[in-house]
Amino acid sequence: MNEQKGLAQMKDAEGFTVRDQDKYQIRSTGYSSDRFGACECCGKHVSEVFILNHQMRYDDPELGPSWTYYGNIGMKFGHEACLKRLVAAFVVAVA
Ligand SMILES: [Zn+2]
Fold this sequence. Notes:
Layout: E1 17-18, E2 22-28, H1 33-36, E3 50-60, E4 64-68, E5 75-78, H2 80-89
Antiparallel strand pairs: 1-2, 2-3, 3-4, 3-5
The protein binds zinc ion.
Zinc ion (ZN) binds at residues 39, 41-42, 44, 78-79, 82.
């Protein structure tokens, strides 16, 4: 099974979902808020804490297309649904 799913569903070698201007990965920590604290999005208790790793694309003059945490969501802990909402709402600001 290796069907084309379009740009929005593409994953890179590290398992990040790659979009036009950013890429992200959401995975379970396997632990609850007892270990990681309340959801960073809604502030409520989480029975299974997920971690979001979000990076933004930029063009490095020497290295070419690269990824950075600067100026975006970066890393966040919380509910899977909250993190997905955060990524869905992320819009790259064009200077
Ligand atoms: Zn939440």
